Amino acid sequence: MIHSTAIIHPEAKIHPSVSIGAYAYIGKDVIIGENTKIAHHATIEGKTTIGKNNEIFAYAAVGTPPQDLKYDGEETELIIGDGNKIREFTLINTGTIQDKAKTIIGHNNLFMGYVHVAHDCVIGNNCIFANAATLAGHVHVDDGAVVGGMTPIHQFVHIGTLAMVAGASAVSQDVPPYCMVEGNRAKLRGLNLTGLRRHLENKADIDAIKKAYKELFQSGKPIKQTAQELLNSNNIYVHQLANFVLNSKRGIAYDR
Predict the structure, then answer these.
(1) What does the pLDDT read at residue 256?
(2) In what order do the strands lie in the sheet with 7-8?
């Protein structure tokens, strides 16, 4: 299960079911859970904890130090959940002490080739990042989001649940849940109706989200005031959308 040419620090904690390919490197403070597969020439270092049933492909670099000039060798951390696929040449950094000193990745995410997840990012579950998607520091991505290829995301941006970012966009402001954005700079282009239909069984919920979207972004009324009014709705998805707008730090780009 472990190739004879792999370089593994004797203090690394690796479950007996883990497979490790030729010339892979595993550092001192790495913990790897059961049935995870590490391909040839992959690098896993830093204080990195990886759950079970993950696949890390060739030449991926996981748990490397932050690309941040403020970083001065402090002990920071990377936590990866279960069932993730991290494809070739993907780069995932640990956190910085200026934030929570942790980069956190949930379960069942797909990181295609050349994706970069920078320091202090927090990623939920079941997300997809297409080739060369680039997340700057402190980015938060909620469950089920999809980010297209060749897309840079500005630091501190928040991407909501089931949001979709078109390929080759440049995202500098927050992306509300259930919405699609596209362009450079990216703006709202409507709802991610395909994603909603796949994940929500009740058509009434989708209709409520449609109505709330129109009220927020197409009515011409002040967005924060409208979001506050939508909190009177008894629909949980409308509440999530309204709360996201009210709590947005970087603002939301849409045609007024």
Answers:
(1) 86
(2) 7-8, 25-26, 43-44, 61-64, 91-93, 116-117, 134-135, 152-153
Catalytic one among 27, 83, 137, 195? 137
Helix (H) or strand (E) holding 56: strand 55-56
Q: How far is CA 139 from the centre of its chain?
A: 8
- The alpha-helical segments, DSSP class H, found in the chain are 193-199, 203-217, 223-230, 236-247
- In whole numbers, what is the pLDDT of the chain averaged over residues? 98
For 60-98, the pLDDT digits (tens) are 999 999 999 999 999 999 999 999 999 999 999 999 999
User: Quick count: other Cβ atoms within 10 Å of Cβ 134?
Assistant: 18
Instruction: Specify the fold of 7-138.
Output: UDP N-Acetylglucosamine Acyltransferase; domain 1 (2.160.10)
Would you state the pLDDT for residue 202?
97
Q: Is 120 a catalytic residue?
A: yes
**Distances from the Cα of 174 to the Cαs of 3, 93, 120, 156, 188, in angstroms?**
44, 22, 17, 9, 10
Continuous segment of H or E residues that includes residue 31: strand 31-32
In the set 41, 116, 119, 158, the catalytic residue is 119
Residues in the chain predicted with pLDDT less than 70, given as ranges, are: none
Boundaries of every domain in the chain:
7-138, 196-247
Dihedrals φ, ψ of 207, to 5°?
A: -60, -40
- Does 137 participate in catalysis according to the annotation? yes
